[in-house]
């Protein structure tokens, strides 16, 4: 395995009590991490994108002082578990342009914010049932001037049935911390006829996989690629599960 370098946060100043548009000096630290992991993402951020990722990190640290956004705040952990992991889930789709994407249960804005920064041609809608978190994400969107992103407060079940969101998206992403069948049921009503969903998972056990395959078969869902990989810094085991309600999902290869 590649010997990845890590970076300590000892040079990071305390975040200011208000949001700031000043580009932080963290951007140069993100660049080498992405460069070392280029083969895992097949993508490298521009200077502007590195600056946006760095500003996003500062805003999350600041927002975390006001509400419980995330426990992942250490620099290397943030890069690996929020930024890299968010982008690893869409690696099979990154060549596509102008996708309409929905991030279900976005929380502090992941994977949606990272995707919006990395793919400016994609339109990213992030939804969460907690208004405070949505307010934070929308403020980050404005601070980073992400014209391709929006945050909406509401329950997925209700929003999926509204005319504005029902079957309007090419891609649904969700960090599937709950049962995969439930997470899938949240995604499907948002997808258009050619849409795909990506479930972001940690462990993916054999029994769980078998049960999910039975569920997909019963619901006329095509289970495509199950991408098994290790995170580049901590070597944690992760999975991305790609599926579709039609025969248009990403096939196994």
Automatic annotation (TrEMBL):
CDD domains: AdoMet_MTases (cd02440). It is an enzyme of class 2 (transferase). GO terms for cellular component: cytosol. HAMAP family: 16SrRNA_methyltr_G. Specifically methylates the N7 position of a guanine in 16S rRNA. Gene3D superfamilies: Vaccinia Virus protein VP39. It holds the Pfam family GidB. S-adenosyl-L-methionine binds at residues 105, 110, 128-130, 156-157, 175. Keywords: Cytoplasm, Methyltransferase, rRNA processing, S-adenosyl-L-methionine, Transferase. Its EC number is 2.1.1.-. This is Ribosomal RNA small subunit methyltransferase G. Belongs to the methyltransferase superfamily. RNA methyltransferase RsmG family. PANTHER family: S-ADENOSYL-L-METHIONINE-DEPENDENT METHYLTRANSFERASES SUPERFAMILY PROTEIN. It comes from the Bacteria. The gene is rsmG. It is found in: Cytoplasm. The lineage of its organism: Bacteria, Bacillati, Cyanobacteriota, Cyanophyceae, Pseudanabaenales. GO terms for molecular function: rRNA (guanine-N7-)-methyltransferase activity.
């Amino acid at each position: 395995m590649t010997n990845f370098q890590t970076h300590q946060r000892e040079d990071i100043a305390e975040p200011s009590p208000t949001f700031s548009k000043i580009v932080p000096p963290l951007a140069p630290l993100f660049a080498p991490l992405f460069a070392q992991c280029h083969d895992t993402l097949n993508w490298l951020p521009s200077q502007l994108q590195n600056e946006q990722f760095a500003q996003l990190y500062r805003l999350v640290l600041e927002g975390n002082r006001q509400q419980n956004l995330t426990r992942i705040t250490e620099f290397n952990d943030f890069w690996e578990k929020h930024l890299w992991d968010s982008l690893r889930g869409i690696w099979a789709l990154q060549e596509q342009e102008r996708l309409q994407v929905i991030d279900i249960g976005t929380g502090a804005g992941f994977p949606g914010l990272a995707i919006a920064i990395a793919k400016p041609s994609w339109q990213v809608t992030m939804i969460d049932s907690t208004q405070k978190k949505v307010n934070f994400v929308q403020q980050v969107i404005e601070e980073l001037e992400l014209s391709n992103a929006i945050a909406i407060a509401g329950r997925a079940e209700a929003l999926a049935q509204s005319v504005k969101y029902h079957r309007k998206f090419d891609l649904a992403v969700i960090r599937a911390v709950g049962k995969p069948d439930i997470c899938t049921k949240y995604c499907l009503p948002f997808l258009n006829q050619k849409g795909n969903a990506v479930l972001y998972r940690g462990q993916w056990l054999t029994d769980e996989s078998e049960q999910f395959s039975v569920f997909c078969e019963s619901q006329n869902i095509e289970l495509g690629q199950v991408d098994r990989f290790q995170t580049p810094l901590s070597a944690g085991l992760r999975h991305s599960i790609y599926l579709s309600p039609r025969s248009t999902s990403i096939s196994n290869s």
